[in-house]
Amino acid sequence: MKMIIVALFLCLSAGVMAEDPYHFFEWNVSYGTIAPLGVPQQGILINGQFPGPIINCTSNNNIVVNVFNNLDEPLLLTWAGVQHRKNSWQDGTLGTTCPIPAGTNFTYRFQVKDQIGTYFYFPTTALHRASGGIGMLKIHSRELIPVPFDNPADEYPVLLGDWYNKGHKALRAILDSGRSVGRPDGIQINGKSGKVGDKNAQPLFTMEPGKTYRYRVCNVGLKTSVNFRFQGHTMKLVELEGSHTVQNVYDSLDLHVGQCLSVLVTADKTPKDYYLVATSRFTKQALSSVAVIRYANGNGSPATPELPPPPPENSIGIAWSVNQFRSFRWNLTASAARPNPQGSYHYGKINITRTIKIANSRAMVNGKLRFGINGVSHVDKETPLKLAEYFGVPEKVFTYDLVKDEPPQGNNMVVAPSVLNATFRNFVEIIFENREKTIQTYHLDGYSFFAVAIEPGMWTPEKRKNYNLLDAVSRHTIHVYPNSWAAIMTTLDNAGMWNLRSDMLERSYLGQQLYFSVLSPARSLRDEYNILDTQPLCGIVKSMPKPTPYAGA
Ligand SMILES: *[C@@H]1O[C@H](CO)[C@@H](O)[C@H](O)[C@H]1NC(C)=O
Ligand SMILES: *[C@@H]1O[C@H](CO)[C@@H](O)[C@H](O)[C@H]1NC(C)=O
Ligand SMILES: *[C@@H]1O[C@H](CO)[C@@H](O)[C@H](O)[C@H]1NC(C)=O
Ligand SMILES: *[C@@H]1O[C@H](CO)[C@@H](O)[C@H](O)[C@H]1NC(C)=O
Ligand SMILES: *[C@@H]1O[C@H](CO)[C@@H](O)[C@H](O)[C@H]1NC(C)=O
Ligand SMILES: *[C@@H]1O[C@H](CO)[C@@H](O)[C@H](O)[C@H]1NC(C)=O
Q1: Distance, CA of 343 to CA of 346 (rounded, Å)
Q2: Does the UniProt entry include the keyword Glycosyltransferase (predicted)?
Q3: What is the tens place of the pLDDT at every residue in 297-351?
Q4: Residues of the chain with CATH 2.60.40.420
Q5: Do residues 84 and 444 make contact, with C-beta atoms less than 8 angstroms apart?
Q6: Fold for domain 155-324?
Q7: pLDDT of 92-123, one tens digit each?
Q8: Can you give the C-alpha Rg of the chain in angstroms?
Q9: What is the CATH number of domain 342-532?
Q10: Measuring CA to CA, which residue among 437, 380, 431 is closest to residue 407?
Q11: CA of 371 relative to ligand 6 center, distance in Å
Q12: What pTM was computed for the model?
């Protein structure tokens, strides 16, 4: 397969105006055979690769990705965790933009403004993520901005997670027929699955003795939390979803679906092979996979078969995991791009202007499985919500605020587009209540938020006394343990239409998501960009005259 990665580095400077550097990519998204668990199946490749190419850039860089959709279905890619300030047009969700028709191309253009860290991109359309189209996006600190650890010898990307051998079309048929996709078939690590004792296993990465490496790890699975660990080595956590953390040392780390982090690992043990181990968490049947990490001077001497044990399961395991979550702290003295510039460091001193309590639920509607938030199960319409708003015809596509700020009584489920009207620049508290028996993870587009608490039981206003109002990590994904709650805080200072979704693909596909409509009353370029002329139009806005563009600065 022909690979066409064009990664140009252009620094445009025109007189006194210096523009931030650009990175250009040209991506061919196509089907191809992959076998993450050893079983060949149709996968989604980018330039022939699975996982796809890495986007490697620096804070404030401009990213231009020309995506050629060579699948047989419409496609959108999202860059989860990239805030797209003023620019939900580039967010790649079905609520903001029309998908790229099969056989055509569309160019994403966005800036990674004031962000650092580890992220991944993936398709948001038609369960495509179950077949691939996934890759890492790394944002480095700008030169001269000190990073709170020594430059590692190298950086190693690890995309791991649960995997189904069926592929997205078969899985989608199951969901469309009203059933769950059930349990995954295994765990993949960078597109492969390894077994202990496999003499033919190729090393995933090789480390020079005495050197320290940065492993950037994301859980790109569909529903399963994963614990990962290195045989014989500890990990120093340095970054979590775009925040430099207090640098604690861990034997193993829980990583929930949609989450990314960076750890430092030093090659200071007996030179030989070691296993990187990934095990499923909180599932009935444990799934696991290993990958070989080689010492350059170890002569390929095989790893010992004894694997470091996983953390406990059941309620003890949840308590273990909650404790680990509480140990994640933001390093307040590390200088870096602040993930939420307007949100300020002193988030604990800002008065909450709105509390939104969100409860997930599952129900059968007309004999078919649906998931929802506060009794509303979201469905995408042919006309994206944002476009309906921009063209001034929202009422033709959706009703604002069907979903309320409080979970309803009972288990009624309404199936409709779910949009919450939010006030620009409000400081909101969102409480996630999980009354189900399975763990949840949620991702909010367009923002990072302070993850101030996770506790078992039900939330009450008194629980605010237990919030971490000092050094909670600013991040974009939060997990909620069974029969527990989690609380986050953020300033809604980024105008646009932003998706809050379950990161568990079957749940978001069957309705466990909503959109925040954050409109700036000024309707000015100061607060929000205009739609690009190149954006495909669809649904009822296709034949409508373009509205007057936002002006001003
Ligand atoms: C994209 O990939 C497909 C499948 O490998 C190939 O047939 C096609 O020629 C590629 N297109 C371009 C523009 O390279
Ligand atoms: C990634 O980007 C950083 C910062 O621009 C640069 O130092 C590094 O060499 C790049 N790595 C690769 C593999 O291109
Ligand atoms: C499609 O690709 C062509 C060739 O690279 C490019 O000139 C054009 O701008 C792209 N179209 C869109 C809508 O991005
Ligand atoms: C936080 O960052 C500072 C500044 O880079 C660094 O010196 C310090 O060791 C870090 N603190 C912790 C606890 O990791
Ligand atoms: C926050 O609320 C308190 C109590 O209502 C009020 O006294 C205080 O002035 C408010 N602070 C800000 C910054 O608005
Ligand atoms: C959304 O909320 C704002 C502020 O409360 C209000 O002015 C506006 O009318 C609301 N819009 C809709 C469509 O409900």
Answers
A1: 8
A2: no
A3: 999 999 999 999 999 998 999 999 999 999 999 998 876 555 544 445 688 889 9
A4: 19-140, 155-324, 342-532
A5: no
A6: Immunoglobulin-like (2.60.40)
A7: 999 999 999 999 999 999 999 999 999 999 99
A8: 23
A9: 2.60.40.420
A10: 431
A11: 27
A12: 0.95
